[in-house]
Amino acid sequence: MIQLKRTNSDNKYFIELVEILDADLKIRDGEDHSFYSQFNKIDHIKYVVIAYECGKPVGCGAIKEYAHNVMEIKRMFVLPETRGKGVASKVLMELEKWTCELSFSKCILETGVKQPEAIGLYYKSGYQLIPNYGQYAGVDTSVCFEKHMI
């Protein structure tokens, strides 16, 4: 059974999961990794969700304020051995719920073209493709999405 816990970026399990995520992204992104890593710092993130299976941390995600009424989803990750169990969907739904509780009306996010699992998750979860925003504008290896909260 998957259990979700809300926390912040000081959580040691979040830090450990993000280290594994960054190692994976370094391989996937190749030469582009240094560009992306500058935008993925985790210090001072107030809203983090960690997924646990049988007491073991297996996935995470975070939101941070991007603009008025807009939260940006960051650092979504599930351990490879736990994928296919709906963990990422549960983490994403909890982040969306938290976004609504904080009275934000939209989530945006960026992912890489070399992350087809993430792209599939976001489409399946009702996200719509948008033009690349902010620092990702004009970056061919980025894909950006948004979802309006009800």
From TrEMBL:
Transmembrane segments: none annotated. The keyword DNA-binding does not apply. InterPro entries: Acyl_CoA_acyltransferase (IPR016181), GNAT_dom (IPR000182), NAT_camello-type (IPR050769). Residues 2-150 form the N-acetyltransferase domain. It comes from the Bacteria. It holds the Pfam family Acetyltransf_1. The keyword Transferase applies. SUPFAM superfamilies: Acyl-CoA N-acyltransferases (Nat). Keywords: Transferase. PANTHER family: GNAT FAMILY N-ACETYLTRANSFERASE (PTHR13947), LD18367P (PTHR13947:SF37). This is GNAT family N-acetyltransferase. It comes from Paralabilibaculum antarcticum.
